[in-house]
Amino acid sequence: MSLPWHLYLMAALYIFAGLNHFRVPKMYTKIIPPLFPSPKTLNVIAGVAEVVLGILLCIPKTSGYAALGIMALLIAVFPANVYMYINDNASLGLSKQIRFIRLPLQVALLYWAYCYI
Known about the structure:
This protein is mainly alpha-helical. The protein contains five helices and no strands. The radius of gyration is 14 Å and the shape is globular. It starts with a helix and ends with a helix. The model has no long low-confidence stretch (mean pLDDT 96). This is DoxX family protein. Keywords: Membrane, Transmembrane, Transmembrane helix.
């Protein structure tokens, strides 16, 4: 069974995003809300999860499970996006408007993953 090209696009996006957690970890640890313990560990977990789930998306037998995992991951990291929006110190230099756009983008990404379950 062949998978659609847009699923491979999604997989590539998550793999590259996951690798980015290791390339520039400070960017990610900065947006983790202070109420969460051990931001460095959470960053590593999120990065590994994105890479592994991206790879699993490319395997027909596991792509549906990977899509569910991506949905769970998107929900889990949503507090970081909210924190980034409300806290100018975690803005990464992005405008308030761009940070706001990231919030509904999460919903679009959730729907995109849902399409592969």
